[in-house]
Amino acid sequence: MKKSIYDTPIFFERYQQLRQNPISMNEVVEKPTMFSLLPDLKDKKVLDLGCGTGVHLARYLELGAEKVVGLDLSELMLQQAETDLSARWQKGPDFSLYCLPMERLNEIAENDFDLVTSSFAFHYIENFPDLLAKISAKMTACGTLIFSQEHPIVTCYKEGYRWEKNEAKQQVAYRLNYYRDEGERDRSWFQQPFKTYHRTMATIVNNLIQGGFQIEQMEEPMLAKQSEWHDEFKDLQHRPPLLFVKASKG
């Protein structure tokens, strides 16, 4: 089984530092938007793909979910999730964790999920239609899928300068040179190489439709005013960093 980049000690340490930062992409953009899309979770069964340290699973339990299941490739992430969830819910709500890539979702024992979620992870998936088929097979007849991923405007980048800048070196336009060229992208974070996959917005939407999903809502959050936020968010005035989709099983 392939290893997770998040099991690299330096990568996991830096990730933890980012998640503990109250002014981060996860806190400012991802979590508020994702949680705003949630349906009523009272007595529901929820699966989170790429669950990380279980932050979203904990929130689902707080909102009344009867059972939550998390799946992640990273052993370090799941160890932290196990520790945190066990400490908060020694008795009561049930949870299960699986160390598997989401492409092997079909191997878990549980079925009939009312809600399947995934945060900031589907851009790591090469075969999106195959994943959607496996998700659909694990859902109830009227189940809901909610996910966020890097926006196609972001995933399209291949090489060169991401931004066009003016004489004062201010960002004025985001380059989309390779938007039409779908497929694998070589990336690096903290000098650690990894791969993501670019799909156009049309491909994402058509894959969902062809997989039997009905799109209910899409979000592309941007910050109109960022003066109160950290400087790293100044480019959110120009383009959305994340795409959010809420869809129901047809």
UniProtKB/TrEMBL annotation:
Keywords: Methyltransferase, Transferase. GO terms for biological process: methylation. The keyword Methyltransferase applies. This is Methyltransferase domain-containing protein. InterPro entries: Methyltransf_25, SAM-dependent_MTases_sf. Residues 46-136 form the Methyltransferase domain. It holds the Pfam family Methyltransf_25. One of its GO terms (molecular function) is methyltransferase activity. Signal peptide: none annotated.
